[in-house]
Amino acid sequence: MVTQSSALIVKDLRKSYGDVKAVDGLDLEIRSGECFGLLGPNGAGKTTTIEICEGLLERDSGALELLGMTWEHDGNRLRERLGIQLQDTQLSDKLSVRETLELFRSFYKTGREVDEVIQLVQLEEKISARVGTLSGGQKQRLAIACALVGDPDLLFLDEPTTGLDPQSRRQLWALIEEFKATGRTILLTTHYMDEAERLCDRVAIVDHGHVIALGTPRELIDSIGATVPAPPPRPTTHTLEDVFVALTGRTLRDE
Amino acid sequence: MSERGFRETSLAQLTLVRFREFIRQPEAVFWTFVFPILLAVGLGLAFRSKAPDKPKIGIVSPTIGIASAPSIPQPVVSLRKDSSLSVEMFSDSAAARALRTGRVSLLVVAQGDGQVRYVYDSTRDESRTAKLLVDRAIQTGAGRTDPVHVTETKVTDKGSRYIDFVIPGLLGMNLMGSGIWGIGFAIVDQRGKRLLKRFMATPMSRAQYLLSFLLSRLFFLILEVVTLLGFGALVFGVPLRGSLVQLGVICLLSALSFSALGLLIASRAKTVEGVSGLMNLVMMPMWIFSGVFFSSSNFPSAVQPIIKILPLTSVNDALRANMLEGTQITALGIEMAVIMGWLVIGFVLALKLFRWR
Questions:
Q1: Which residue from A17, A24, A18, A75 is spatially nearest to A46, judged by alpha carbons?
Q2: CA distance B15 to B235
Q3: pTM for this structure?
Q4: In 3D, which of A42, A24, A132 has the Cα closest to residue A87?
Q5: Which of B11, B197, B198 should we substitute to test contact with A (largest number of A Cβ atoms within 10 Å)?
Q6: How high is the pLDDT of residue B50?
Q7: What is the average pLDDT score of chain B?
Q8: How far is A132 from chain B (nearest CA, A)?
Q9: In Å, how far is A220's CA from the nearest CA of chain B?
């Protein structure tokens, strides 16, 4: 189990592509066991930041410590303990769900049983199906399963629910909450504020490559009260999505 | 943690993935295994050894069609008796057309005085052959004897037919195609799908990743070689005169050499479209110049040094020397050096340039 008080520490991180400063002096500290949301408009530097943290991109400068380790000294030990879901990965269409997970499982010295992870993401019925035949939601759950199969202490999720129907989205939320309940850490990016509000203990809002606001969702909402007039109160606390889910059911549509 | 079996190791899993992706792609199976055999069958039938066709000649004789003609001229009689010629009789007007359209290769015009005139195109091989045969038939028929006595020994040697030439060429072409396509395409496909990047975020060993491509390549190599050579030997009787072990070594090194080339081509390309063009650019000259379908010695001597450096030229030369002439691998120093050179340079450059994301 993780003993550090901080799972991830980022100090003055910088990364430029030519003249474009993608990350420009970004600071971040994520506590062990929390679900941390990185919010911000497209091009704010979220994905660049997360890929530097994942060891996939070199940083120009700044300090970076994950689970008490650094990429420079503990590269492979670190990879053993990170779970990663990238925004744009396409898993091989020709392989089955089980074969894909067996492949990813084989990369890790220790990890979870393939069957157990398949059960966790509710893909038992698709266990022998080719990845090419899965729906968007199923593919995304498989991607998360690949991130979980190494039994990580720190999970990176880059826009995990983008493009999913409400049922799949809620199912993924349940999955993330389950992972959090085991006391482990999550760094998540999303464009959905309701998602951040529901899942994240704390969020950072990033723009132009650095953090412009940080706190619990409640704190951020309260802080805005002084400067921005509140919208007229809504008649109920339900959202249109609640209606959609109430009418179409909570079960996943496996088209 | 319980001891994990070999099947759960990442090398085994990565290699299994290569097999699965290959056999689940029917078109890849077709191009690798079925196409070379279809090509061999087609070429074998088109260029099968058979007795050359009898030269077709036409005779134009003023007496044709006249039942009461007093006698047929002696040259015409001689020609009709000669079994090595296919003779047709013509009237004047039809004869010219038959020659023009290639229905006959030569016209023999019988003159009234017992002399003959040959009408033929001296630039056509079959016409010149016909002329020699016709002349011999007429002259010996008229009583000429050969001053020198000659004996003949006729041979039809296995190994000298076109199919014997082309099967090693097809094997070489196949080794090149599956090495370059099989490795290059799969890697660039994974890079394009950001799957390679995803792998890089796991503790996967890079060496095992590359090794899995070579291992699966070697497995398919055995199938390809056995299928094509087995087919050639059983159906067409293509000879395997050299040591089979040495043939295996040549195939193995050739396959590795082309794999290195495939890896090099794929080392930086980001899209399947981009790498396809690059592969064709690399393979096209070798299809033409390296002696797959016809001997590379047909090209001018000025370009021979360049042709000799191409890996497929050495592969084809080595395969033919082993299979058709039974040459020892130790006598194929230059060919093996070229193959090994591409292997080493290819791998070193590929590993230096390889983009792992």
A1: A24
A2: 33
A3: 0.79
A4: A42
A5: B198
A6: 64
A7: 88
A8: 12
A9: 33
* Strand pairing category for B116-120 and A82-85: unpaired
Residue A82 near chain B (CB below 8 Å): yes
The SS3 assignment for B346 reads: helix
Counting one residue from A and one from B, how many pairs have CB atoms under 8 Å apart? Answer: 75
CB contact under 8 A, A80 and B203: yes
Chain B residue with CA closest to A149: the answer is B202
Contacts of B357 in chain A (CB under 8 A): 56
- Of B134, B70, B69, B73, which Cα lies nearest the Cα of B108? B134
Q: In whole angstroms, what is the distance from residue A135 CA to residue A255 CA? A: 6
CB A123 within 8 A of CB A141: yes
* Mean of pLDDT values over B309-322: 96
Beta strands per DSSP E along A147-255: 154-158, 185-190, 202-207, 210-215
Q: Please name every residue paired with A190 in a beta bridge, in sequence order, or none if there are none.
A: A39
Determine, for residues B193 and A89 on separate chains, whether the beta-carbon distance falls below 8 Å: yes
**Percentage with pLDDT > 70 across chain A:** 92
Whether the per-residue pLDDT at B333 is higher than 80: the answer is: yes
Give how far Cα A11 sits from Cα of A22, A51, A220, Å: 15, 15, 22
Contacts 24+ apart (CB under 8 A), A175-181: A175/A120, A175/A121, A175/A141, A175/A144, A176/A35, A178/A120, A179/A148, A179/A155, A180/A33, A180/A35
Task: Give the residue among B262, B259, B241 at the shortest CA–CA distance from B251.
Answer: B259
DSSP, collapsed to helix, strand or coil, labels residue B65 as: coil
Select from A98, A93, A128 the least CA-distant residue to A113: A98
**Is pLDDT of B3 > 80?**
no
CA dihedral (B292, B293, B298, B303) in degrees, to 10, reads -30
Q: Place B47 in a pLDDT band, splitting at 50, 70 and 90.
A: confident
Q: pLDDT band at A109, cuts 50/70/90?
A: very high
Structure tokens, B256:
């590795």
Residues of chain A by 3-state class (helix, strand, coil), percent to 5: 40, 25, 35
**pLDDT tens per residue, range B102-121:** 888 898 888 777 788 899 98
For residue B84, name the pLDDT band (cuts at 50, 70, 90): confident
Q: Do B12 and A106 touch (CB under 8 A)?
A: yes
pLDDT of residue B189: 93
- In this complex, which of B195, B200, B357 lies closest to A91 when CB atoms are compared? B195
| B201/A90 Cβ within 8 A | no
